[in-house]
Amino acid sequence: MFDVPGAYPTNRFLDNTATKLHPANGANVKTLRLFPPGQRIKGMPSIEKILITGASSGIGRALALRLAKRSFQLALSGRNAEKLQAVAAEAGGTHIHTFPADLIVPHAAARVVQAAHQALGGLDAVVHCAGIGLIKPTLDTTDAEFVSVTNLNIRGTFLIAQEACRLMAPQKHGLFITVPGILGKAAMKNAAAYCASKFAVTGLIKVFAQEFQRSGIRFTLAYLGGVDSPFWDDMGMAVQRDKMIPADYAAQLLELSIDSPSHLALNEIVLQPESHQL
Known about the structure:
Distance between the termini: 42 Å
Mean pLDDT: 83
Largest sheet: 7 strands, parallel
Radius of gyration: 18 Å
Order of helices and strands: EEEHEHEHEHEHEEEHE
Structural class: alpha/beta
């Protein structure tokens, strides 16, 4: 754990400039303004302290960089300590803590959530982006591979959500966001283990939402299609990066949940590349 020197004077409730979205091909597709210039939004949630897992790359990294610019207090977790440190240094905020961890190690998930809670002096939201994928024909998928994928994607999600809710329920407010991806809603060939794990995450979080519906904890499931991230580097698939969802755009969608008024829950987000619409 460490604190990165440097501060952002930006008030996260103010935004005098629109945010331009730039997909991988460089085109400026739209301009999105989350906040009216110079105004604080009535009904804004009291979210200040956020844990992000899977923060060393992809959506988690993009979200960490965006939230740091808005002066949120952040705890970042991921398996690679060096990459986490690089993200924290790039973010440049004074309230950033890193907790390298492999969530499948016994007790590691609970310890990450507890450490974030202690370091930040509380916890308002958890954005769980950690996970692994496997694209492989069903008959070629080994028992060990199936266990590895489901262990992190299902069990890791369960343990992070369990400890987060344990800590947030007594305070009567909180937000839990995770990204099952589009394979948590639609099946794809050659992805039996991966689809099974992501469908399980969908069911798992829907159960959490029911059990904690009177605790003030809100839940968001983000069903995102292919996101342009290092996830695809070792998949052995021919993918068109310029047709994918830019990681920064995906992070902005998660911000919409974070920025929602506390009496509203953005339960589901579905976004697909135009060529892969459901």
